[in-house]
Amino acid sequence: MSEKWAFCVVVCGSGNGTRWVLKRCRLMGSSTRPKPNCLEFCVVWDFTLISKRNVKRDEIEDKVIWITGASRGIGEVLAKQLANLGAKLIISARNEAELERVQKQLTGKHAPHGVKILPLDLTSGEDFLEEAVRKAESFFPDTGVDYMFHNAAFERPKTSALEVSEDGLKATFDVNVFGTISLTRILAPYMLKRGKGHFVVMSSAAGKAPAPGQAMYSASKHALNGYFHTLRSELFQKGIKVTIVCPGPIETSTGSGTSTSENKGVSEKRVSSERCAELTIIAASHGLKEAWISNQPVLAVMYLVQYMPTIGFWLMDKVGGRRVEAAAQKGNTYSIGLLFGKKKSS
Ligand SMILES: NC(=O)c1ccc[n+]([C@@H]2O[C@H](COP(=O)([O-])OP(=O)(O)OC[C@H]3O[C@@H](n4cnc5c(N)ncnc54)[C@H](OP(=O)(O)O)[C@@H]3O)[C@@H](O)[C@H]2O)c1
Questions:
Q1: Which of 31, 38, 39, 257, by CA, is between 20 and 30 Å from 212?
Q2: Which stretches make up the Ketoreductase domain (predicted)?
Q3: Given pLDDT bands bounded at 50, 70 and 90, which one contains residue 336?
Q4: Which amino acids are annotated catalytic?
């Protein structure tokens, strides 16, 4: 009987993060099903992030970490986890009352006294941002800011690429790109003087692959990826690190306690904001350059677009129109059914 070898690539994404499993199955004859006792081995490619497993605590403890967008969502959870790991924090967003709420909930070696509130509107221009950086640097004058977590972002409006309005485009880019880059340009010289500093940038899967129905958001995250990978290439030898985190759909809660799914009224497979924050901190503490955090099918799409773009872009061209319709109907925009024309709404 002739033997055939087949490779079956199973793409696994779970709350545990990024994982591919390559299963090499021995197939007998014309059967396409592997025999139960066949020689089989699994190679689990724990892509860099998942192989790191735990936070390097000494990279976080006693460090000064400035987080934007800390008034709710992933930023709030990041603040809680970083405080618990013994970091000193500067928390920023526009809503001061929400920042105070978050500050009161923080526990850890330096909380609450080592947690400073710095209200900040990323769209308020360079003079304001210069003042904000001066304040942030003065809170902990012995060390200055060790990490800048760029987490704040403009809301993610769902519109087709042609419906993008100039106002919406400007509002998105003002926060996600111009404000974030300006803050970086102003803070980086302080870090360069000390010969060390680390930018952790909350990008998105939409910054790696097409995101039908979210063209503005996707464009802004692609821009961030381009800027920060370039910044790192220019400044790495001078002690500046950059970690770009690209999450897929994440379950977040607002300050008032409602969750992403509750707000949308549909169930989507989202990674919890706790797991997202945990993996982000693991990636940052190990100095990873880029980390992907997502459930399927978004993770598989990211891999395809990165490593097999012909297939990845073909797939996105197939689902794109349906995803825009699903978004308009407030349906599930991450459903595998979009590929087959089924618009699963829950
Ligand atoms: N949630 C997801 O599914 C998901 C997926 C991929 C990537 N991400 C990324 O992860 C990050 C956090 O997402 P999230 O869902 O937690 O966001 P979110 O709940 O919408 O929170 C956004 C944060 O940004 C702040 N912010 C908004 N405009 C600002 C401005 N002009 N100046 C300063 N701060 C401002 C908000 O606070 P104020 O309103 O008080 O200013 C808030 O704290 C974002 O970068 C997002 O793009 C999220």
A1: 257
A2: 63-253
A3: confident
A4: 217
> Tens of pLDDT along 179-222?
999 999 999 999 999 999 999 999 999 999 999 999 999 999 99
- The set of residues, in sequence order, having a beta carbon less than 8 Å from that of 203 and lying 6+ positions away, is 221, 224, 225, 228, 244, 245, 246
Domains and CATH numbers, the chain: 5-44 (no CATH), 50-250+268-298 (3.40.50.720), 304-338 (no CATH)
Interatomic CA distance for residues 229 and 222, integer angstroms: 11
Among 250, 253, 258, 293, which residue has the most ligand 1 atoms within 8 Å of its CB, making it the best to mutate?
250
Taking all residues of the chain, what is their mean pLDDT, rounded to a whole number? 84
Nearest CA to ligand 1 atom 7: 204
Which ligand 1 atom sits nearest the alpha carbon of residue 68? Answer: 34
156: left (phi over 0), alpha (psi -120 to 50) or beta: beta
Residue type, 42: C
pTM higher than the cut 0.85: yes
Ligand 1 atom 41: residue of nearest CA: 94
* Contact present, 272 and 250 (Cβ < 8 Å): yes
Residues within a 6 A CB radius of ligand 1 = 68-69, 71-75, 93-95, 98, 120-123, 151-155, 175, 202, 204, 247, 249-250, 252
Q: From the alpha carbon of 99, which atom of ligand 1 is closest?
A: 40
